[in-house]
Input
Amino acid sequence: MKSLTPCHPTRRALLGATLLGGLGAVPALRAQGEEPEVATVARGLERPWSLGFLPDGRMLVTEKAGRLRVVADGRPGAPLQGVPAVDADGQGGLLDVVPAPDFASSRTLYFGFSEPAPSGRGNGTAVARAVLDGERLREVQVVFRQEPKVASSAHFGCRLVFGRDGNLFITLGDRFSRRDDAQDLSNHLGKIVRIAPDGSVPRDNPLLGRRGARPEIWSWGHRNVQGAALHPATGALWTHEHGPQGGDELNVVTGGKNHGWPVITAGREYGSGAAIGQGETRADVAPALRTWVPSVAPSGMAFVTSDRYPGWKGSLLIGTLKAQRLLRLTLDGERVTGEQRLLAGLGERIRDVRQGPDGRIWLLTDSGDGRVLRLG
Output
């Protein structure tokens, strides 16, 4: 990349914080040297939401307003033509983007967006695939639509992750006003779904053939999942989701499991602080690995498999919006053993976190002058 401008020329000591989680206290990590320097690779992006890497080193970046750009040599390109209509209101817009596993030969990518209802009443998360052809998308085809459409500008979820078997996980929010539907298997609200690349239902989906259940559903009881990644060793899907007033969660998501929302949660009602649901645990609900109280508002997530950052290999990185930090969690299997809060001086909402093909960590900042950042 060219024209790299350091954001903060001086390095800062690592900042740790101990918070109470659903599994008890998680210790803060002591500083293990200096933070990596942060470089601005590109800027001038309007509310960027997702970052994806192409095999040739270029990057795809979505902007919530409905623009998809290719970033090369430190410069965002012109918006690609062919993006379908997007309902860019509130938390809605053009959201996640991922190249297909066979992108090098197929030139196919997948992207999620808030799709307006044909009637103009309501919207819902949709996922489309398209072929990248120069400066435009062609053969655009919607392969999934969240049902029902809801009149809401919140909680679209919309992280996309390809499993090792080639099937696609799609995270879906409860749309805020329909939280009780997260426990109703007859709809897609508050669910994670799993589809084949063409939009069909894989034969081994856990609810396939279950009366009254949508066959695409992989798991349920989710509020608003905006971070998802495959564990590099096990291939399991890890996610995090926004709680209301507290109660953000980190989860390992297994097919056919209930994750509790809004019946089981550490979150509280906005304003009053009243308890929600029946408590924080229940035998039939998959427990969270980590719960944040107060909320950090997590967004974006990546496992570190690179040796570029001393002491970081095997860690899980999570961006935060409210806390305006990059969290580094150390893990022992499926147990969180510590947490560091990084980039205190950045002072920006971190929307996406990715490990690039070069092994470096890349971030997106969520603002009207959003940036692509590189660590180290």
Residues 103-106 form the longest helix (4 residues). Helices lie at 103-106.
